[in-house]
Amino acid sequence: MSFIPGIPVPIGGIEKELGKLWEESGDTKTRASLINLAIYNEKPGSLERNTEIIRGIAGEHAMRAILVQADPKAEGSSADAWITMHCYLRGSKGGSVCSEQISFELAGMAARSLQSVVFSHLDSDLPLCLWWQADFRPPIDGKLWRWVDRLLFDSRHWKNPKEQFDLIRQIAGLAEARTVLCDLNWARSLPVRQALAAIFDIPGTLAELQLLRTLELDYAHGSRTTALLLVGWLADRLGWSLSNPSTNPEFRDAQGNTIHVNLTEAEGASISRMRLASEKAEFHLLRESGSDLYVTTATGSEIATTSRMVRAPREETREILLAELSRGGRHPLYTKAVKAVEGLWT
Amino acid sequence: MPTPLVNPLREGIANRLSPEPCTLVIFGATGDLTHRKLIPALYNLAAEGALPPALTIIGFARREKTSEQFRKELEESTRKFSRTPLNEELWAQFASSIIYHQSPFDEAEGYTSLSKQMKEADIKSGTGGNRLYYLAVAPDQFPVILSHLRESGLSTATPGSWARVIVEKPFGKDLKSAQLLNTLVSEVFPECDTYRIDHYLGKETAQNIMVMRFANSIFESLWDSNHISHVQITAVEPLGVEGRAGYYDTSGAMRDMIQNHLLQLLTLTAMEPPTSLSADAIRDEKVKVLRSLRPLRGDDVFKHVVRAQYTAGLINGQPVPGYREAEGVPKDSTTETYVALQVNIDNWRWAGVPFFIRTAKRMPKGGTEIAITFKSVPRVLFNQTGEGLDENVLVIRIQPDEGVSLRMSAKMPGSSLRIEPVKMDFHYGTSFGKATPEAYERLLLDAMSGDATLFARRDEVEEAWAFVDGIEEAWKTRSDDLAFHTAGSWGPAEAADLAARHGVTWRRM
After folding, report:
1. For residues A141 and A101, is the Cβ–Cβ distance under 8 A?
2. CATH number of the domain residue B473 falls in
């Protein structure tokens, strides 16, 4: 491969080689670590892409990163490893703070026994966050998942969300409810959910939430699952049940009223526009193409027209990952949102 | 269909109370605090979408200017002092909620027109009759502002809304004036609507003291007189009075730092676990610590407290004048710029543990920290090494370089048994690289949300004054105890003697 993710080291001597690396780096470097972040990917070139991501976040979230590029279908067995550090200057005395990175390229049998590779190189007592960048495949291996504190994945990239969500549920069940599920797609939708929730803090708007009849949502190419998670979140929060699972589905509220949902693919941010309407009021959320702001508006016959702007984060994987790692905690509403639109996953 | 009482979309979005729509009136809107802290903090909250959906900010001040001029000035200062870059669009949106209200503080008409403006804002912005008054003025202006707020009816909330007041320190200059001030405030606003800001409590590390103590079993189980030898709380700075001579010379280090910031840190360090994380449960425990402080009065003051003034010296290699040579300071001033005191907390947990508190200007470097020194282990096992073992010291650094470190003993590699101290260090900035919000952001949001946990309660303030008054009274009887130290040194010899009487040396920071 053309990209070399650090200094090549024998797999059996990784800790020793890391120790040497620290000794050689002198007194100005400090090792820091809040978590073990293991990233699993099966695509060629992933070590380079993931090294770039780690470099981008290590300055704000110190960690031991363990990157794995695996080819489990290959014959035989091979394993190569590299080590490196990502250092950032801190303070005025010229010292720097460093995160360690261990990279593996595994093929065949070595790739199929992932836990022995990953678990033997964890920084002890720190939580393990495993970012699974491949499709989940049955059967679910309980030995691997039981030790994972946070399982990160991105449902936006799934070609078969229905099957994948089923497998995710199995993992969550397997791991004695210890593993926290962290869908980066859910994290991606957080700023939209925050901005939308803030609209209904405006006096007089809360009652309209129960009277919504229309939901329009524009999403970018490839972001339909993001859009569906948002619809699921609203459905769960507002007590809607899916009555007509179609491309533009319909829901029923607790009183039996129909809510029409219109999902449209459009240029721009992953979620660029939302419109929620009742008979008397309309609520908009808009992110113009290229803008780093959300503009929300509430209008209606019985509410004062209110417009608001808030900073919209960049939709880069690095930013979303960092936000998710910094936020921590469980995501109880996520599984509810997935369930609320279960009939729409294909 | 009944309207839900809470916004169902809020669940899971943030684990804090939501700020409520309101009109924020800043008295002293043209002052430094508004420009440097308050408006930049509000702008950052707006940019993050953390402000309530409806907020009108009214700047109340005496100087003639239009709202447009006021906004322009605020834009310039926010550009300079905001922790995040100014976004033009966001600023424009945020600034549209700012109004300037010109009036002397002592004219009833000014409050009548303020009332009108706020009612208009309620209709236009949906602020719902909620009022938050911020007294960013000198304490001598409090009475006139408060009485006008009461007389104009502005301090009384309409049904279903609230009216709160934020009071900046100093909360009085002694117990009597604090009581007067508190009584004055309480005649206008009930205690539950009074928010006394001590910005130290808004700092992340100060908030972390409770988490560190009560979320880690290894610390709390050792947090008592059985295991702790003594505690040192220090807040020092290399700066002088820097243009604040007028205020500082009438206040001094005791009133400026000890009465509020350092006694607050003491209470967080020494308090019992609260029954819950509610504002009053925490403040109940803090006030118990203040009530347990052994009073210092009369001759005891001169045994337990050292006051000093800096004389000309060098800071970072640069000559600096002495305190009495600073502009605005009387040549015979006896105001203390250095205070070191040893206090005792007479309760079950802390009986026999001396607490040392120190604050000073013109020190070689600045910093605020709490150092907990644990008792030494018996020397039986290692007495052949010929040297005493260093005690374990847990240091909580409040600023700068927030973090926690633990000093412990370790064997030096080699064939002989040589034991040396080593330090385990946790730096916030190292592990959590992201910028933390300014204390004022947190505190303003808390006041809008009705969360008073990080604000000082009346009894806390008064208990702290009662303790400090005993010292101030004794100081009034004589001044020959005033010591002097060179600027850029670590304080007078008298302070070293004070610590030495307990077998302690002051920490070199």
Report:
1. no
2. 3.30.360.10
Burial class (CB in 10 A: 0-12, 13-18, 19+), A157: middle
Helix (H, G, I), strand (E, B) or coil at A54: helix
What is the dihedral sign for C-alpha A160, A66, A114, A328?
negative
Q: Please determine, for residue A91, whether its predicted confidence score (pLDDT) is greater than 70.
A: no
Mean pLDDT of A105-113: 89
In this structure, are B69 and B213 located in the same domain?
no
In total, how many domains does chain A have? 2
* Main-chain phi, psi angles of B360, to 5 degrees: -165, 155
**What's the confidence (pLDDT) of residue A1?**
63
Contacts of B93 in chain A (CB under 8 A): 307-309
- Put simply, the chain A residues between 22 and 51 with a CB less than 8 A from any chain B CB are 30, 32-34
Q: Look at residue B507 and give its three-state secondary structure.
A: coil
**What residues of B are in the A interface, CB distance below 8 Å?**
1, 3-4, 7-15, 18, 21, 46-49, 52-54, 87, 89-90, 93, 123-126, 128, 401, 427, 429-434
Are A60 and B47 within 8 A, CB to CB?
no
State pTM to two decimals: 0.82
The pLDDT assigned to B459 comes to: 94
B50 CB burial (10 A radius; 0-12, 13-18, 19+): buried
Q: Which domain covers residue A91, as residue numbers?
A: 7-134
* CA dist list (Å): A286 to A181, A195, A226, A275, A308: 29, 10, 16, 9, 11
Answer with the one of A115, A134, A153 that is the final residue of a domain: A134
DSSP for A262-303, written as a single string: EEEE-SSSSEEEEEEE-SSEEEEEE--TT-SEEEEEEEETTE
Range of the domain at B100: 18-168
3-state secondary structure B92-127: HHHHCCEEEEECCCCCHHHHHHHHHHHHHHHHHHCC
Per residue in A149-183, pLDDT (tens digit) is 899 999 998 989 999 999 988 887 775 657 889 99
Per the CB < 8 A criterion, the answer to whether B12 and A331 are in contact is yes
Q: What is the CATH number of the domain that holds B61?
A: 3.40.50.720
Contact flag A203-B18 (C-beta cutoff 8 Å): no
**Which among A193, A234, A310 has CB closest to B48?**
A310
Interface test with A, best of B3, B9, B93, B211 (most A CBs within 10 A): B9
In B352-509, the DSSP E strands lie at 354-360, 367-374, 393-399, 403-411, 419-427, 455-456, 483-486
Low-confidence ranges of chain B (pLDDT < 50): none
pLDDT for the residue B167: 92
Q: Residue B362 domain-assigned?
A: yes
CA A292 to chain centre: 20
In a domain, B177, yes or no: no
* Domain end call among A97, A117, A134: A134
Share of chain A above pLDDT 70, in %: 97
Do residue B52 and residue B126 come from a single domain? yes
Alpha carbon B218 to chain centroid distance? 28
Whether A194 maps to a domain, the answer reads: yes
Within-domain flag for B445: no
Average pLDDT of chain A is: 89
**Nearest to residue A62, comparing CAs of A149, A127, A16?**
A127
